[in-house]
Amino acid sequence: MPRYERILLKLSGEVLAGAASFGIDGERVRQLAVEVAEVARTGVQLGIVVGGGNIFRGVATAARNMDRVTADHMGMLATVINSLALQDAFEHLGVPTRVMSAIQMHQVAEPYIRRRAIRHLEKGRIVIFAGGTSNPYFSTDTAATLRALEIKAQVIAKATRVDGVYDKDPLKHTGAVMYKEIPYQEVLAKGLGVMDASAIAMCRDNQLPIIVFNLTTSGNIMRMSTGEAIGTLIH
């Protein structure tokens, strides 16, 4: 039985690359779509924000000498490419999906309109929010928080490569300790780097909980949606 009626799922672009360092791994995208579709079929309304790191990583060296605004716009376009890949995977599974872009590109995605997005969710469609916020200097974490608040999601589910929030990077430190629950303020005070400070502060100011969980463990998206105690709850 789902615990949440409406969830904003935040995915990193790297998730779509699979074992590769950048690009899109079709099989990994398909596996991810199967897990998310299973949750959608239980009646949970799902909004998704996906990063663009898997594509932008490939041009990151060239971007170093670029104007920051130009580089950020390139990153936003990378999120559109990832969103279209996800949409295709969902629709192959028979799950109706809409990509809504903050940057208008009518031939490939709907423009983001809040009321229309909510209507899609109410009709049982997965909505993928692409193009970040359309503004430079804002990360996809901040975009995910903004969209979650706008669509009145009950939780942000932040999918990562580790089991939750640790006191230090578990991929580099063997003695890292994981938190089961942690207040927003402690995440900010300790600079834990789970999400951007601006995204954490927005969640704190609007009492929007965040669940940080490991996406690489099969079935974790369903476990999170049913309220099973996995990962770390930031509240």
Write the layout of secondary structure elements.
Elements: E1 6-11, H1 26-40, E2 45-50, H2 53-56, H3 60-63, H4 68-92, E3 97-101, E4 110-111, H5 114-122, E5 126-130, H6 140-150, E6 155-160, E7 165-166, E8 178-179, E9 181-182, H7 184-189, H8 197-205, E10 210-214, H9 220-225, E11 232-234
Helix pairs in contact: 1-4, 6-8
Write a brief structural summary.
With 235 residues, this protein is α/β, with parallel strands linked by helices. It has 9 helices and 11 strands.
Could you please describe the fold and organization of this structure?
There is one protein chain. This protein has 235 residues and is of the alpha/beta class. The protein has a single domain (6-234), classed as Acetylglutamate kinase-like (Carbamate kinase), CATH 3.40.1160.10. The protein is built from 9 helices and 11 strands. It has helices spanning 26-40, 53-56, 60-63, 68-92, 114-122, 140-150, 184-189, 197-205, 220-225; strands at 6-11, 45-50, 97-101, 110-111, 126-130, 155-160, 165-166, 178-179, 181-182, 210-214, 232-234. The strands form 2 sheets. Strands 4-3-5-2-1-6-10-11-9 form a 9-stranded mixed sheet, with helices on both faces. A two-stranded antiparallel sheet has the order 7-8. Strand 1, helix 1 and strand 2 form a beta-alpha-beta unit. Helix 1 (26-40) crosses helix 4. The longest helix has 25 residues, at 68-92. The chain is globular and about 50 Å long. The chain starts with 5 loop residues before the first strand and ends with a strand.
